[in-house]
Fold this protein.
Amino acid sequence: GDFEVTVEDLRHLGADLVEQRLAATRDAKSHQQLDGAVFELALTLLPGERSRLHVDLDMQAADAMSYRTLMSDLAAEYLGRDLPELAYSYREYREAIARDEAQPQPARDADRDWWARHIPQLPDPPMPPLTGGRDSRRSTRRWYWLDPPTRDALFARARARGVTPAMALAAAFSNALARWSATSRFLLNVPLFGRQALHPDVDLLVGELDVDLTGAGTAAQRAWAVQESMRTAAAHSAYPGLSVLRDLSRHRGAQVLAPVVFTSALGLGELFSADVTEQFGTPVWIISQGPQVLLDAQVTEFDGGVLVNWDVRDGVFAPGVIDAMFTHQIDELLRLASADDAWDAADRWTLPSAQRAVRDAVNGRIAESSGEALHDGFFRQAEQRPDAPAVFSSSGDLSYAQLRDQVLAVVAALRANGIGADDTVAVVGPKTAEQVPAVLGILAAGAVYLPIGVDQPRDRAERILETGQARLALLCGGQRLSL
């Protein structure tokens, strides 16, 4: 049947207004939620007998292979070609899958048992510094195009070391994650394209990759480590990754998500076929986003080279982190493409110059010491103005006298537990008013406080406690870490 296409005519507008309207359309469509549909087409008519085609596809109903097929079929329809009739439908595919799953599946059962043995040892997802904002529906893209000579050099040097091109790119991405995460071992979500061949017209499995770059001091070692992890996961992919995540959530007693994704579409051919680019032109802007994905990295063949994309949820990561990570990955890929010895050179990684400049500026500030401890001023105020308000909180305000009583109670409790001068005490919990007497009490006891947020991943929290040599923890806000 006919498919409705929305058309907007901007042919009468000047260049500046055209760009504004196109930007507004792009912003609206890239963040809209399709109501009862999985696909939308729109066309904008532009001055100079040009046009812009807008394609919105719900990625919960399609993957990268489906998108290629969709665009190729659209080009064929535009040219008036007859599409071959499919002898097999998606509904038939799902029914066949259901029948297949109802039958005994020794391979699936064996892989399920294998994952069950390994689930207790699986790490957390990578978690670079966050600021919150997970509810944001907006994403932005970083991209870099490796031109054909760079791609060829990178792929040739990878293959010479027994590394596939996809794993070379995955290793560079994993290295960037490890540099900015608390640990060099993490769980990475990697979609594997390999639909079950139940019919010739069927050409998604999701894999959970246990990436461990601990001790991998060179690019070659990292690539081998990631490739071996991929081979292990692929060898047990009869039990799908979504089921692994569900089992992992049950094991931990809390939902485990896969917020960081690496998708390789290498080997699937050009992102857009010659027919597509000849009829619709070169893509101007592309983005993908998922409801639970914070960082989606993709590599795909494009215009004879390789397009490296990062689609990032806005407002989630600390300022500057994503740009620094993306630059680190691209710099590594270019370095590996340019020289053989770069693969075997020991890492001498330093902070990006912009981040180094900020730290130097902060650490370079000089001020005269007052000679007072941090808590001295508080006790002085409590003596001079005991009834003045000291803390405003939704759980109840405190005067200086009331706060002093709580602080002294903390001091007494710490000393009763053997805490003395220079000991480290962790303060665990959300940022609430309860942390105020906890911190002041630790300082008044002569100890050092070590704040740990409840949103910290388990591995990071354990590492903080171990490195800080904490002897005791004060739990604030009724929160507890799983340590």
